[in-house]
Amino acid sequence: MIEIKNVTKDFPGNNKAIDSLNLTIPDGKIVGFLGPNGAGKSTTIKMMTGILPLDSGSITLNGFDIEKNALEAKRIFGYVPDQPDMFLRLKGIEYLNFIGDIFEVPKEIRAERIETLTKQFNIYDALDDYIQTFSHGMRQKIIVTGVLIHDPDIWILDEPLTGLDPKSSYMLKEMMRDHAAKGNTVFFSSHGLEVVEQLCDEVAIINKGRLIFYGNIDELRDEYHTDQSLEKVFLELTDDA
């Protein structure tokens, strides 16, 4: 479970990037995080993962405060950033073993997971190449593989499907469904509203740093008295952005 309580974030010379945000993401759900560009999605995710400090409020992951219990919290989530351009001077296999070492994944289990995941994502034969030689899609796949190696309870994914080919995108969505079905939490941002509508149990919509809706698609339609698609409702809700 992810609990965000009264979280605020200011940046110099700007209005509140996040303004008194309250959001609880339960176990066993896939939750899509939506908002126009600049709404505060990536800022929220970076605070959830400890990359950015909170100005006020608190964020807990399975009961661990991301600021007060940072190491404990970071052991139980996996994070895919919106830009996969990191550790470019490492070979693919070096990066995955580095992640495995950090999370103390036993070598036999690690080797099995690396082989299985990289073959599924069709990057197994590139593991001895440097990440800087990878295409954007391959970099995305290696980052996702690194997240899955230690099998974290909570997945926090910032635009995880960007750059993936259709087969890899399909596999990742199936992995997300399986992970949630086991009672775990999947929280991801996306601009792909059709994907969110098909995949997610619930959606959280943010605009100008404020949460304007949280619930399932049927609840969204009931609240706004419409039978339109998520895309059309979303555009109406955020048309001042």
UniProtKB/TrEMBL annotation:
The keyword Transport applies. InterPro entries: AAA+_ATPase, ABC_transporter-like_ATP-bd, ABC_Transporter_VariousFunc, P-loop_NTPase. Keywords: ATP-binding, Nucleotide-binding, Transport. GO terms for molecular function: ATP binding; ATP hydrolysis activity. Signal peptide: none annotated. SMART domains: AAA. The keyword Transport applies. Residues 2-233 form the ABC transporter domain. This is ABC transporter. The lineage of its organism: Bacteria, Bacillati, Bacillota, Bacilli, Bacillales.
